[in-house]
Amino acid sequence: MKKIILIFAVILTFFGCEKNDDNNNETLPPATQTGAGTFACYVNGKPYIDKSGGWFNCYYQFVEGEYYFSIGGEDENHNLLDQIVLSSNASEIENNIQYLLTCNEPGNYYAEVAFTNQLLGATTCSSSFGTMTITKLDFDNNIVSGNFEFDVIHPNSGEIIQIRDGRFDSLFTQ
User: Fold this and answer.
1) Which residues pair with 160 in a beta bridge?
2) What residue segments make up the domains of the chain, in order of their start?
3) Residue 8 CB: number of other CB atoms within 10 A?
4) Residue 87: which of 113, 115, 68, 66 has the closest Cα?
5) DSSP letter (8 states) at residue 101
6) pTM to 2 decimals?
7) In sequence order, what DSSP letters do the residues of 40-83 get, joined into one string?
């Protein structure tokens, strides 16, 4: 009887392991300030990592008398979100300042997400929680680094999507 139970336990362990396509075993890249080309966070506890090698769009530009910042990352293998974008609308960014992420309106900072296999997206305008902190803004080397966390509300289900422990480190265009 003990042999049967042992064999059954081994079979359950072997066949009970599920295939991992959601980056569950991956860890986020370290938070750096070197222009390493990283963008990562946890989405509802699961890793979200841009693996494009730093080829995402990042800019901080002065246009018609106002500053605009944007950085976005994509994780094509994530089961919930394809894209996350952090931006400012007619607002400067500075080192070591924590910005509240609200709505895409002049003078504000905000985040947007695109859901996997859906035309719908969401912004921090629909939630009451979100921050972004610029940890390095280097104009000589065009490096911007920072961290972020925010919530968005899924437009169909009403579920709160939690984005946590976010970090980015990128070169930017001016």
Assistant:
1) 153
2) 36-171
3) 10
4) 68
5) B
6) 0.83
7) EEEETTEEEE--SSS-S-EEEEEETTEEEEEEEEE-TT-SSEEE
Which three-class secondary structure state does DSSP give residue 148?
strand
Q: Give the whole-angstrom CA distance, residue 29 versus residue 36.
A: 10
The tens digit of pLDDT for each residue in 128-172 reads 899 999 999 999 999 999 999 999 999 989 999 999 999 999 999
SS3 35: coil
Q: Which of 70, 98, 96 has its CA nearest to residue 84?
A: 70
The rounded distance, in Å, linking the Cα atoms of 76 and 133 is 25
Q: How far apart are CA 159 and CA 151, in angstroms?
A: 10
Which amino acid, one-letter code, is at 46? K
Q: Which of 1, 134, 161, 148 has the alpha carbon at shortest distance from 79?
A: 161
Q: 23-67, pLDDT tens digit by residue?
A: 456 799 999 999 999 999 999 999 999 988 767 789 999 999 999
